[in-house]
Amino acid sequence: MRILLVEDDALLGDALQAGLKQAGHAVDWVRDGVSAETALAAEEYAAAVLDLGLPRKDGIDVLRGLRARKRSLPVLILTARDTVDDRIRGLDAGADDYLVKPFDLGELNARLRALLRRAGGQPAPVLAASGITLDPATRAVSCAGKTVELSAREYALLLALMQQPGRALSRAQLEQHLYAWGEEIGSNAVEVYIHHLRRKLGADAIRTLRGIGYVVAKDSPP
Ligand code: CA
Predict the structure, then answer these.
(1) Which has the least CB within 10 A, 21, 32, 181, 222?
(2) Residues 107, 99: contact at Cβ < 8 Å?
(3) Over 70: is that where the pLDDT of 139 sits?
(4) How far is ligand 1, taken at its centre, from the CA of residue 200, in Å?
């Protein structure tokens, strides 16, 4: 998923960017509050990881502005200020969760998975649709009971579709999920990944809706 990372500390930001990428996300990293607002206005993010103490504009003000514009993406705040007041202010300003520095990268990724589940209306930790199961915690994918090996981009594309089964995503929307700033997008990259996924998961796993995009069918209720 496409994640916005807002962190002014170079070392921590670097580690966070690497850890989020490792978890399969496309990550845009900005280092101050004004750049965060610009990024949020320009891109559709699945979630944001937001430091509170930032140059140019405080994280709390970025968050308040975001919610004032009725943007509902999940926001996880990071704070070094280990006071109850800061956490309460953050949650009341519209944060969905928080972590106090220093924190464990594994916990950050687990909290993000939980936020993305809720945002996608998918309460179960393992996603299942169209005969496919996908576990975001382990990145294990199986089809008809058999484990399937996917590349990082194939996985990211399938995850985007499986988080909202029954909903079609256009090529542009899928590109947004797959690529951070500065990453080269091949002109038919999405089509190529879809082709690979169909070869591995079966021709019917992902349907094409002409002129609209791609969809993973919802499982019909038992
Ligand atoms: Ca900071």
Answers:
(1) 222
(2) yes
(3) yes
(4) 43
